[in-house]
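2024-03-11 09:14:02 INFO worker-7 job=invfold-0412 stage=load source=structure_tokens
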């Protein structure tokens, strides 16, 4: 089995324990302590039966009080809460996509942002019916960006990217009336439906939850991904490293955290500037290290090989190393705790977006016009902070793994080309991958996504599930914090082929890939939708017939529910390890885990036991294979 060794969750935990000792010295708080104060959680909230959408309440449903004051029953309350939760996630992802549209709109040959992948821009223009002949690439970028922004508020029609789905899927969306219209409309309509005195029928509420989710996955998120590729380049395989050990004690450490690559790309650019590197040296550092946390880390890892310091529940750890000069954030998944925590150390906590403003942070407002100066000021502030370190508080766990990342759909198609030695000679299609699946060399694929959640021992579910799947010849495609868990453990090291089943091992060797493929950030789950669509089109099957499932074992955010809704609505069975606050309504729970299959040919499974969860996924994949006779 060679010398390959995974890093275990026990080792992660030992490193965290050591960092919390540093925290104790300076009186730092941490999520591990706050969780204790919040446990046990409120049962009404946890089961979704608390309603506070009007001021007659809050109403809480119990056997003695089965209706709210307005007469709404538990199913209406749980359904409305679920819809509002989805709308929060869809709004958030989609607004991120909108920011990227604006960045594209600001791109210029001599500006802060350039078009790095003009071919992709031309492809999208053709797809959207825009004349490209003889047009300046930046004129085209602005035209497409504006059309993208119109997708948010257009009065008629549905999302342009829906046409990328197989015909059958598009027909389902039309038939079930869940084809998403303007993105902002779906979010507004969701809030409208969940207002006092509007919808209380679970079926209507879940249908709109799906529509709002689809406006994210096939609308806002897909534009976020595609236009980020146009601006910053479509990812291709690149080597990097993951876990806290990527921070370097002799260097100025800048940690980027959040989601929008418009900020992190610019920080990386300036951290590479010879003038600023020389300045860092003049201050006694050997150089500048940028590393990342959460999805912004995935973005810059996929495109630049920037190392990943950690995922969601590790964000406080980077400050606890005592060696972080600045943690620079944009939007989403940022603990407000970082403000007070940084105050216990020399770390600068720099917020940059009007959307995410927090106490105890330094606010350097970032925008496309001034992005260069802003990024330079941030990098310089971090360098100036190097001398303020307290040497007694410095401890960086010596723990990191190698990872190869950057598997966009384009990259996957390319690396798998020629893996099979059969007659399949079509290049640029998913046919080689399909052949691996139909021949049984690969049994199927799992899209492993989502966050960490203290309800699950951090990273354990991600890692254990992935280990078992790859041992069973199931390739894993990962994004978000699930991907970072894999990278930290070593599952994105090509050497991890040694712990795969014989079939997957062979594919990894032939294609020179790791068994867990990093597909990017959460908005990049839209890439997974494209891959599933291409597989369906190239095989002549429906998406729901493919031996492919989705899984979010440790999810926590509203965005994850929006994602789950569009993945299920696209025909992919989705397995959750955390309940989305619906257990209080038998009707809503039944719909989500079974009833919706009649609408969209897929449904949710919620299973908190990791062993049962992975077995359920493998069983589902094998059932799908059996139904196809492969
Ligand atoms: Ni957007 S949404 S904790 S960073 S995956 Fe990570 Fe991914 Fe969840 Fe947030």
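2024-03-11 09:14:09 INFO worker-7 stage=emit residues=630
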């Amino acid at each position: 089995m060679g010398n390959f060794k995974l890093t275990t969750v026990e080792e992660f935990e030992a490193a965290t324990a050591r960092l919390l000792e540093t925290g104790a010295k300076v009186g730092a708080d941490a999520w591990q302590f706050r969780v204790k104060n919040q446990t046990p959680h409120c049962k009404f909230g946890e089961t979704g039966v608390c309603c506070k959408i009007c001021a007659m309440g809050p109403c809480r449903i119990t056997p003695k009080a089965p209706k709210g004051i307005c007469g709404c029953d538990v199913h209406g309350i749980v359904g409305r809460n679920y819809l509002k939760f989805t709308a929060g996630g869809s709004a958030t992802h989609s607004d991120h996509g909108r920011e990227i549209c604006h960045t594209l709109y600001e791109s210029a040959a001599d500006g802060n942002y350039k078009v790095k992948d003009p071919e992709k821009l031309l492809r999208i223009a053709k797809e959207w019916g825009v004349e490209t002949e003889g047009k300046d690439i930046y004129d085209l970028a602005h035209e497409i960006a504006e059309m993208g922004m119109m997708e948010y508020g257009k009065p008629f029609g549905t999302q342009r990217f829906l046409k990328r789905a197989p015909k059958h899927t598009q027909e389902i969306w039309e038939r079930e009336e869940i084809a998403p219209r303007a993105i902002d409309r779906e979010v507004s309509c969701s809030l409208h439906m969940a207002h006092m005195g509007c919808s209380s029928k679970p079926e209507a509420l879940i249908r709109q939850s799906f529509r709002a989710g689809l406006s994210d996955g096939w609308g806002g998120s897909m534009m976020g991904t595609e236009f980020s590729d146009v601006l910053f380049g479509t990812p291709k395989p690149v080597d990097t490293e993951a876990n806290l050990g990527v921070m370097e004690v002799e260097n100025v450490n800048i940690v980027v955290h959040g989601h929008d690559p418009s900020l992190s790309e610019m920080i990386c650019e300036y951290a590479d500037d010879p003038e600023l590197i020389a300045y860092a040296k003049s201050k006694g550092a050997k150089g500048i290290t940028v590393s990342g946390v959460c999805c912004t880390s995935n973005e810059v890892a996929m495109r630049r090989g920037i190392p990943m310091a950690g995922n969601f529940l590790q964000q406080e750890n980077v400050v606890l190393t005592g060696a972080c000069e600045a943690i620079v954030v944009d939007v989403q998944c940022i603990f407000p705790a970082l403000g007070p925590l940084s105050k216990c150390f020399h770390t600068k906590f720099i917020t940059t977006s009007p959307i995410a403003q927090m106490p105890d942070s330094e606010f350097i407002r970032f925008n496309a016009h001034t992005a260069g100066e802003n990024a330079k000021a941030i990098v310089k502030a971090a360098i100036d902070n190097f001398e303020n370190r307290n040497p007694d508080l410095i401890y960086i766990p010596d723990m990191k793994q190698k990872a190869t990342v950057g598997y966009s759909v384009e990259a996957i198609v390319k690396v798998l080309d020629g893996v099979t030695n059969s007659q399949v000679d079509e290049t640029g299609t998913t046919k080689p991958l399909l052949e691996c699946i139909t021949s049984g060399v690969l049994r199927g694929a799992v899209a492993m996504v989502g966050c960490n959640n203290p309800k699950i021992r951090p990273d354990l579910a991600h890692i254990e599930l992935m280990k078992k799947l790859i041992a069973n010849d199931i390739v894993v495609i990962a994004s978000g914090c699930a991907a970072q868990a894999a990278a930290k453990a070593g599952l994105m090291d090509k050497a991890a082929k040694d712990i795969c089943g014989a079939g997957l091992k062979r594919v990894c060797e032939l294609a020179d890939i790791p068994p867990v493929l990093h597909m990017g950030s959460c908005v990049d789950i839209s890439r997974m939708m494209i891959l599933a669509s291409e597989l369906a089109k190239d095989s002549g099957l429906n998406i729901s017939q493919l031996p492919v499932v989705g899984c979010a074992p440790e999810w926590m955010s509203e965005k994850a529910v929006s994602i789950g809704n569009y993945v299920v609505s696209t025909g992919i069975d989705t397995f959750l390890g955390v309940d989305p606050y619906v257990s209080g309504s038998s009707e809503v729970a039944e719909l989500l885990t079974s009833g919706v299959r009649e609408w969209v040919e897929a449904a949710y499974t919620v299973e908190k036991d990791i062993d049962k969860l992975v077995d359920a996924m493998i069983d589902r994949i094998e059932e799908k294979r059996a139904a196809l006779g492969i």
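2024-03-11 09:14:09 INFO worker-7 stage=report msg="Residues 259, 294-295, 311-312, 333, 450-451, 480-481, 521-522, 557, 559 surround Fe(4)-Ni(1)-S(4) cluster, oxidized (CB under 6 Å)."
2024-03-11 09:14:10 INFO worker-7 job finished
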